[in-house]
């Protein structure tokens, strides 16, 4: 690959290091948001990037959106276990620990180790994942409200009951949306049937 991009991922920002064909490095910080991804794309275009190898650490879920964005743009993306980067840094004698240094270290790791490409999920799977995550969030809220109900003061009791009623309906609705998404997608439906066939 003529260009290699290392990304140090955080919740709010991305520290990126771009290795140019001659070996020089360029750095930039962008927001970890769709607007930030657009800024990153413009910056890559400014450096005349066409063929790009991207490496980043699997940091929580914060890496997923930018990985999908870059994979959708046709770039080869690798998502690496942070322990591998840490071990590579120790072996390379890198002692400084800052986000820009980490981004450059990820570039060096990518060039030296050539990690395998990450397989981006299909649009249908991304939509299903979003629904499932929302279902989990609603369930957590319902549990919190149920736990509050027995110990709450009378003047707020009715509000919690009303919120629980809303949450029950929202969970029912999102479960219906999940089943519809699976039933309407042959790939997801086949995977669901395979999972359902496993005893227990």
| Terminal residue distance | 46 Å
Helix/strand order: EEEHEHEHHHHH
What structural category arises from helix and sheet content? alpha/beta
* Rg from alpha-carbon coordinates: 22 Å
Gross geometry? elongated
Q: Number of helical segments?
A: 7
The averaged pLDDT comes out at 92
> Mind describing the biggest β-sheet?
5 strands, mixed
Beta content comes to 15-25%
Let me know the number of strands: 5
The spatial strand order of the largest sheet comes to 3-2-1-4-5
Provide the low-confidence segments as ranges. none
Indicate the topology:
Layout: E1 3-9, E2 13-19, E3 25-31, H1 34-46, E4 52-57, H2 64-72, E5 76-80, H3 82-92, H4 99-113, H5 123-148, H6 154-183, H7 186-196
Parallel strand pairs: 1-4, 4-5
Antiparallel strand pairs: 1-2, 2-3
Task: Describe the protein's architecture and organization.
This protein is α/β, with parallel strands linked by helices and 200 residues long. It has seven helices and five strands. A five-stranded mixed β-sheet has the order 3-2-1-4-5, with helices on both faces. It is elongated, with a radius of gyration of 22 Å. It starts with a strand and ends with a helix.
Task: Describe this structure in a few short sentences.
With 200 residues, the protein is α/β, with parallel strands linked by helices. The protein has helices at 34-46, 64-72, 82-92, 99-113, 123-148, 154-183, 186-196; strands at 3-9, 13-19, 25-31, 52-57, 76-80.
